[in-house]
Amino acid sequence: MRRVHAERQLACPVCGRCRDAATMAKGSARARVESLVKRLAPGGSAAEQAEAARALARLCFDKGPNREHVRGCGGVTALVRLLAPGSSAAVHEWAARALLNLCFDNAKNQDDIRECGGVAALVRMLAPSGSVAVRWEAAGPLLCMCKESAKNRDSVRECGGVAALVGLLALGGPAAVHERAAGALANLCINNPQNQDSVRECGGVAPLVCLLAPGHSAEVQRRAVGALGTLCTESLGNKDCVRECGGVAALVELLAPGGSAGLQRDVVKALNNLCYGSTENQDSMRECGGVIALVALLAPGGSAHVRQRAAVALRSVCYANKKTRKVSGSAVALPRWSNSWRPAALRLCTNRLLRRCRACAMTTHRTGTA
Known about the structure:
By secondary structure, the chain is mainly α. The chain has 22 helices and 2 strands.
């Protein structure tokens, strides 16, 4: 008979026999979750419900079986019930925080929240009548749920969540509120033209552009850049709206030397989406110095990922636009990179761009036109 290590032999409180320590710990955790879920039941005091929700939020912070235990014990439904009008602000805050931790990287819990009416309840908490803390907490689960699920994105829009999140952008509150609202809008618009148009129709483009201004934190700017880039993946109307709100110039300013590689990468991606298929945005890029800024990012010593994105963006900026190609070619910062270390994707992009600029220069020389 296989021996069990002495330290792992524990007496089972039910039958008195030895049981593996991991099994007992699992049973103990599930029992604790069941106890906390019972304290969320209607009829309890607000203080007790808030404390139970806070404990569940902490238990579900890390990946592990606790998230599954909460769902199995009916905790998702109980937490969504606490979001109903009439509960205290503390109950709303901790219940939303627990739902955020429950649905993080957990598709089953996300589906459960949607199916038991959690999306509508969270959107309702975004109303201007709520406190800043409650609205911030409510935006968290929505941001998480819309990252990968198309059904959740549609559900948020149908419940009026787009307009509610746009309202948070105009709120003169902490930077964390703007960061979370912009992040939620970015996730809402992923591969969803209806949500992209809805953000524009609700007046969300101008507030996002305002978040790019100096004075906002780098994280807020990064979230706003991501939202603007996602908005412009397909819709020409959104691309025009961003330009009319001053978004092209604001994005170009973020490419100034000294910026973080992560922010520059996201800015270049957004500019690529803005200029693809839009001659007006290509011209705007050239007029505000964006072409020169992108060329500068190709200089040796920078991040390979940023340089690759810059080359792709320059292709979009130069496509069917001779004036922009001329500016790119005259910048003389498109060298023949060494094949020994440069990534193949970057080499391909810059070589294509070089061919376009050279073809434009030859045509200009022969015809004598600009």
